[in-house]
Amino acid sequence: MYKSFSMDLAGRTLTVDVNRVAKQANGAAFMHYGDTTVLSTATASDKPRDGIDFFPLSVEYEEKLYSVGKIPGGFNKREGKASENAILTSRVIDRPMRPLFPKDYRNDVTLNNLVLSVDPACSPELTAMLGSAIATAISDIPFAGPCAMTQIGMIDGEFIVNPGQAQLKVSDLKLTVASTREKVIMIEAGANEIPEAKMIEAIYKAHEVNQQVIAFIDQIVAECGKEKHSYTSCAVPEELFAAIKEIVPPAEMEEAVFTDEKQKREENIRKITERLEEAFAEKEEWLEVLGEAVYQYQKKTVRKMILKDHKRPDGREITQIRPLSAEVDIIPRVHGSAMFTRGQTQICNICTLAPLSEAQRLDGLDENETSKRYMHHYNFPSYSVGETKPSRGPGRREIGHGALAERALLPVLPSEEEFPYAIRTVSETFESNGSTSMASTCASCMSLMAAGVPIKKMVAGISCGLVTGETDDDFVLLTDIQGLEDFFGDMDFKVTGTTEGITAIQMDIKIHGLTRPIVEGAIARCREARLYIMDNCMKPCISEPRKEVGEYAPKIVQIQIDPQKIGDVVGQRGKTINAIIEQTGVKIDIDDNGAVSVCGTDKAAMDKAIELIKTIVTDFEEGMILTGKVVSIKEFGAFLEFAPGKEGMVHISKIAKQRINRVEDVLTLGDIVKVVCLGKDKMGRFSFSIKDLPENA
Predict the structure, then answer these.
(1) Is residue 492 a known part of a binding site?
(2) I need a labelling partner for 399 at 20 to 30 A (CA). Which of 82, 417, 613, 657 fits?
(3) What percent of the chain has a predicted confidence (pLDDT) above 90?
């Protein structure tokens, strides 16, 4: 039976309709937040997928442009592949919800969110996040929820709960926090150098709001929730673990994983696995799950070493960062380059500068964002982890890592007025063993400075890990986690920032939430580590942005003209501006406010283009001296072109001091001559003279 539930959420009405649409899904929530409407569904397969050792969860966020009254651009008028925003939203939904499904569950689950309409004051992303949580909670799919998500903005130091598009545009903070009843389970943030204490305050402001939403979800589940279905457990049999320990005692497994070389550790585990395969050759049912069993054995060994003995696999102290190194200008001819190495994680970043016309155009649901001028792209080839597989373009992980580093650096970039360039940085992963996204942030910052981008402050990033015990107060935080500690640990808490505060956070966990002491401890540990990285690695390599862009980078000069004169510069069908471009070889961009950017590598050509533009937009005044080219000769005088589309006439009587019978006696087509403006004639037209030029002109 169709039921509707409503609550007040941050001054707007959130309504959830259950059993109104999509009744064949395991769970469906028809979400309305203001006029934003999203259909969220949760579906699961009847049986586990064969031959896998992971939970096959798929999260989709479908942006439909009809939701904002648009038809898709381009030739194909149908929505194509997911936008970057859709992928990032899917990841934000996935990360807090995945750990709440049973660890031994192998049935395929899809969470789908269809955006049907968008109210600019009510975030469709947030509505979809809540919709996925509600649809799963009321479904028969096993789930340790409910969970809730809240977004926090900050304007003039005041927190805004669930800000709209207009508020986010001027907000110093864009924070998303997911919670269960007791704990925070996900944090995602972009911030304008927010101090750590203020960020923690914002996180727990969101956590408070989440408790109100969870109480609302509890009401819906009580009335509409289905009984959770039983499923086939894919857990490793305990007798297999016991048999493995007889062949490979805990001390031997500890020795196998206790090394700072990833390749050596993998070789040790390979040999152990081969021995076990031989030992269990007769037991087919054990061989099917042996890989998962060895993984679990490694995990228990590493966690015990860290939690009880405070020993890390590579021998480091709990707060110790791996060896650091940094270089700039390692790639010739590019506009800027830098390489940052932290242990076995190595990123090379290349910066490219271009005119603002090459900024990325966006065709999405946010009416405020139609383009972006800073783009960070992250690539993760298989060779970086010693594997081989074909390249199929960036996946969701690569897009997410690129967006995180992009978000980290946005607050320190100069404005378009200060630095009228489109900027692209690309992080190439040369080697990976943990937290390449944070290495990308450090490498990108140095690459921007090497390219001469006048960033306001240096930005660095680091990741903090976690291993927890049986109780909430039994935990160990790990500074600068490597791959093994990420795989077997409970948390990957990434924080970027300047000396003043935080610019981005991304937190992933594998457990059912973090206590406040863990959150506060991780944020403090990340601050200490990023300051160390800046002082001991980045600043000794390059301490400030270079004063000028590189030799091979385009040079851009910006001038301001009267917006009403834009048409004069462009000319009919672009004739005037194209003539300037053809004549000088530069690129010219003009925005609606009259900001003209001239881009080129030849300073003389750029100066010429600027001179022509200034001539076009300048009204002739008496006494003004100009240089023009003779483009037409008549019986009564000569026509001069001062700039494309800007002409004037010199009467035959004003050409020479002596009387002449024919204009051709003095001037020929193509001559470059100086003239002085005499003001307007009786017909209201400007008159020019060669003979009346001042002697010193």
Answers:
(1) yes
(2) 417
(3) 64
